[in-house]
Amino acid sequence: MTSLRFFPLAGLLVATPAAALPDDPLQSPMWEFVGSQILGADASVRFDPRVRVVMPQIAENQRVFPVTVDARGIAGVRRIVVMIDLNPIQKAVDYQLREAEPYLSVRVKLDQRTPVRGLVQLADGSWLAGGSWIDAAGGGCSAPPVSRVKGDWAQHLGEVRGEQWTGGSGGTLRLAFRHPMDTGLVDNIPAYHLEEVTVATAGGKRVGTLQIQAATAEDPVFTLRPRTAGEELRITGRDTNGVGYAALIPAVRAR
Asked: Domain span at residue 42?
């Protein structure tokens, strides 16, 4: 269905078709709908091989599937979104970066065979996209998390671990949180997930903010590339019930 935009013309409203998303090289049946919902129906989008989406081609464990979006070959990236077309929850992470390289590694849930995409937004508001189809057995979003089965999840809410180091192409930060990341798709278990995490230096310089949805795997792990090597990093976060997360990550060490 074509969306419309209205412009005033001599006191009248004239309807013109909104810019359509480009044809999908992956030919996903949900690209136009999901892309419009996440990016906007009139978003400027191009498919670009410089958006490197690194992941296995087959999901051995659909509850914990590793995805890395690496756009370090592109100048002016300010935002990275991980999108899973055929999941019931299509957006896993929305990373708004400042003092960081355009790089994000995360683990997600897959509910069936689906395209998994990395979408990066440039300073001018336009988007570049990359990704591929992934084979998955299904059920990653509709199975209870392991911590629910064990019954120990409540004892660990608020726990966060992290470290940063230097080596190779620069600084790296890895963060791990204890959380069941409930999707709301399991009987008698309502949706409940880590919602937002902010990374900043102890002096207040913002590295980036992660907006997180329940399509992210249980006990989320994120790998980022800060441009703040040599500085302590302060981690603050909250979940959808208001439980807070906080940690101070020491300055980088060499590996």
From this structure: 19-254
Q: Judge whether 63 lies within some domain.
A: yes
Q: What is the DSSP letter of 29?
A: T
Return the CATH number at 116.
2.60.40.2470
pLDDT of 176-205, one tens digit each?
999 999 999 988 889 999 999 999 998 899
Evaluate whether residue 99 is within a structural domain: yes
Question: Total structural domains in the chain?
Answer: 1
CB 207 within 8 A of CB 95: no
Cβ pair 81, 215 in contact under 8 A: no
Query: Is the CA virtual torsion 145, 148, 149, 150 positive or negative?
Result: positive
In this prediction the pTM is 0.88
Q: How far apart are CA 43 and CA 122, in angstroms?
A: 12
Q: Provide the 10 A C-beta neighbour count for residue 93.
A: 22
Per-residue three-class SS string for 118-144: EEEEECCCCEEEEEEEEECCCCCCCCC
CA distance 114 to 132: 8
